[in-house]
Design brief:
The protein is mainly alpha-helical. It has 18 helices and 4 strands. The longest helix has 30 residues. The protein is globular and about 55 Å long.
Length: 424
């Protein structure tokens, strides 16, 4: 069994799935759903093979391993409930194509736990995918009306690689920076991407000024990231303050591309989603356990979505989707695993990359309430891979010098631990 090959195949299948989806969505190219199902299934099977043949959980702290097992178990319960509650063709289609896989994407944590076998994957992405990914821009710019293919289909993982800029050679720093900036400026209306990239570069700035950043500041930043969504959610529900409300001079944030497409960067595209999902779940009293993997919410904004009058299978917000399908139980388990990784990455790591990854994961908790909709895609794949890295005892034990050797991207090399092993 070639562990590196399984990890690479798992990622490539996810990449191809995302690529085909965005070619279909933004370029109106035909797509056979069976192809997507096959790709997702192949990716998942590769991870499940690793799960059954390697004792990767030995790398994780006991409590984190328990939380992860609980998350997977509850995901399976959500899927099984969906099987029993599916009523029609659309329910079955959504379950088989989407949520049936989405609740199992956390298995990508295995790739992070087996970090010593991920070096080939990271090298492939930076030296091949990012470098040759620029070729798709001139090939698709005229038919990619929404300009989503490069930033969403190719460079969605780039924010992760921005964090490794301090550890790679100058030429790869240049490549990663070019990909990140291109992904931002080619689609200025993709606001979530701009926020992700900006935060990632702030983490890099923190690396270079780390001597002046006390450990307590990093811990407080993570705590703030944990609390901020709840504060804004409470203020929004009570009507005190709406963080999504656009400014009065909204028109000055409008942009227009050379193809005539116009978008407003200050437009509120989230408030009505929160209102509709929360009101729908309140009417059905499904907050605690959710509505299963085939759950829908009542909408007045979208009509006749996927064949059902005023019923919609999920929204564009990760928190709302997780809440809709698996309830507060699912949200809590997700938070416990995520912040276990944040805690161990910040407190029990010998290298600064783990600290940056941990803060970035805490930031992703905020993005969970803005976008990051639940899918078996590269965005979630790398979220869970990052969780695996932060929870891995061996990865946290590496020194910054070890990290530079690990991300060398040269010929075959061996990472030797020179740092004192962490205690947890």
């Amino acid at each position: 069994m070639n562990i590196r090959l399984l990890i690479i195949i798992s990622f490539i299948c996810t990449l191809l799935c995302d690529t085909l989806l965005y070619m279909n969505g933004s370029m109106s190219l035909p797509l056979n759903p069976a192809v997507l199902i096959t790709l997702k299934l192949t990716s998942l099977v590769c991870l499940l093979i690793l799960n059954t043949r390697i004792k990767w959980k030995n790398e994780f702290p006991a409590w984190a391993s328990l939380f992860f097992s609980g998350l997977i178990l509850w995901g399976l319960v959500t899927i099984v409930r969906g099987l029993f509650l599916a009523k029609n063709y659309w329910d079955w289609k959504y379950l088989i194509q989407n949520t049936g896989f989405a609740f199992l994407v956390p298995y990508a944590v295995i790739a992070g736990a087996l970090y010593n076998y991920c070096d080939s994957l990271f090298k492939l992405i930076v030296t091949k995918l990012f470098v040759f990914g620029f070729l798709v821009i001139p090939l698709t710019i005229k038919i990619d009306i929404q300009r989503e293919f490069f930033p969403r289909g190719i460079a969605i993982t780039c924010s992760f690689f921005v964090l490794i800029i301090p550890y790679v050679k100058d030429k790869w720093r240049f490549v990663i920076t070019c990909v990140a900036l291109t992904a931002v400026f080619i689609a200025l209306d993709y606001r979530a991407n701009i926020i992700r990239m900006t935060f990632a570069f702030l983490m890099v700035a923190m690396f270079y000024s780390r001597k002046y950043v006390p450990a307590i500041v990093i811990k407080l930043a993570c705590l703030a990231c944990l609390l901020i969504p709840f504060i804004f959610l409470f203020l929004g529900v009570t009507g005190e303050f709406n963080v999504f409300k656009p400014s009065e001079d909204i028109d000055k944030y409008s942009i227009q591309y050379d193809n005539g497409l116009e978008n407003n960067l200050a437009e509120d595209t989230r408030t009505f989603l929160y209102q509709e999902v929360l009101l729908s779940m309140k009417a059905r009293n499904t907050f605690f356990f959710g509505e299963s993997a085939t759950g829908t919410y009542t909408t007045d904004y979208f009509e006749d979505d996927v064949g059902q009058k005023k019923q919609r299978y999920g929204s564009e917000v990760g928190f709302l989707n997780t809440l809709l399908y698996s309830g507060l139980v699912g949200v809590l388990l997700f938070a416990l695993v995520l912040f276990s990784a944040v805690y161990y990455g910040v407190v029990y790591s010998n290298n600064f990359l783990c600290k940056m990854l941990a803060v970035f994961l805490a930031f992703k908790w905020n993005m969970f309430f803005i976008e990051d909709f639940l899918e078996y895609n590269m965005n979630y794949y790398f979220l869970w891979l990052s969780v695996g890295l932060c929870l891995s005892k061996s990865f946290r034990a590496l020194s910054d010098a070890d990290m530079r050797a690990y991300f060398d991207f040269s010929a075959k090399k061996t990472v030797v631990k020179t740092a004192t092993p962490v205690s947890v």
